[in-house]
Specification:
By secondary structure, the protein is mostly helical. The protein is built from 3 helices and no strands. Helix 2 crosses helix 3. The protein starts with 17 loop residues before the first helix and ends in a 15-residue tail after the last helix.
């Protein structure tokens, strides 16, 4: 079951978004590249998101993801 795209951000406005700023800060050229990297490198992705958004923790985490 497909979904039709009803709205898309104009390309010249992409850099003004938080996601666009995150991608620029990490040298990621496209949203598809960001999605791919988030899937193949989830530790990097979530650690980078936490740092980029400056999310505070009462106790620093040791690992981002424990697959054991």
């Amino acid at each position: 079951m497909g979904r039709d795209v009803v709205w898309s951000l104009p390309p010249d406005e992409w850099d003004s978004t938080v996601t666009g700023s995150f991608m620029a800060a990490h040298g990621i050229d496209s949203y598809d590249d960001l999605v791919q990297r988030s899937v193949t490198q989830p530790d990097w992705f979530w650690s980078s998101v936490v740092k980029f958004l400056e999310i505070p923790f009462t106790r620093p985490y040791d690992v981002v993801m424990d697959m054991s």
